[in-house]
Amino acid sequence: MSSLEFETEEMRPVSAVCDAEFVYVALADGRQIRAPLWWYPFLAHATAQQRARVELQFSGVWWPDLDEGISVKGLLLGWKAPGAQAPGKAA
After folding, report:
1. Rounded distance, CA 84 to CA 79, Å?
2. What is the reported pLDDT for 90?
3. Residue 45 is part of which domain span?
4. I need a labelling partner for 35 at 20 to 30 A (CA). Which of 1, 11, 78, 86 fits?
C-alpha cells in the first residue's frame, strides 16, 4: 500500500460511536481511532440522538440527520473541520 492509498478494505470503518467528548471509529483491520468532538463542530453541537444515527461508508462515516460526515483519511491525518476550535481557546 502506498502512502496515498487510504480507501482500502482494511481502512473501511466497521463501527462508529460518539460520547459526550469523542468520536470513536473502528476500522476493518482492527485499529480504533478516537478524535475529540470539537474537531467537528457539527458533531459537538449535535444531540446525542443525532450523533447516534450513523451510516458507515467505504471511506468514512456519515451522519444523515446532520447531512455531514468525516473520512477515515481525515481522521488518520488529524484533519479538523474548518472553524474547529478547542474549548477555552479564543479565536
Report:
1. 10
2. 63
3. 9-77
4. 1
C-alpha cell at 59: 471511506
User: Minimal CA–CA distance to 20: which of 2, 46, 53?
Assistant: 46
At 31 the three-state DSSP class reads coil
Please give the Cα distance from 54 to 63 (Å, whole number). 5
User: Within a domain: residue 2?
Assistant: no
At 43, give phi and psi (nearest 5°).
-80, -40
All three cell numbers of 87: 474549548
Express each pLDDT in 6-31 by its tens digit: 677 789 999 999 999 999 999 999 99
Chain segment 30-88, per-residue pLDDT in tens: 999 999 999 999 999 999 999 999 999 999 999 999 999 999 999 999 999 998 999 88
Q: Report CA-CA distances (Å) from 24 to 1, 4, 11, 20, 90.
A: 24, 23, 14, 11, 26
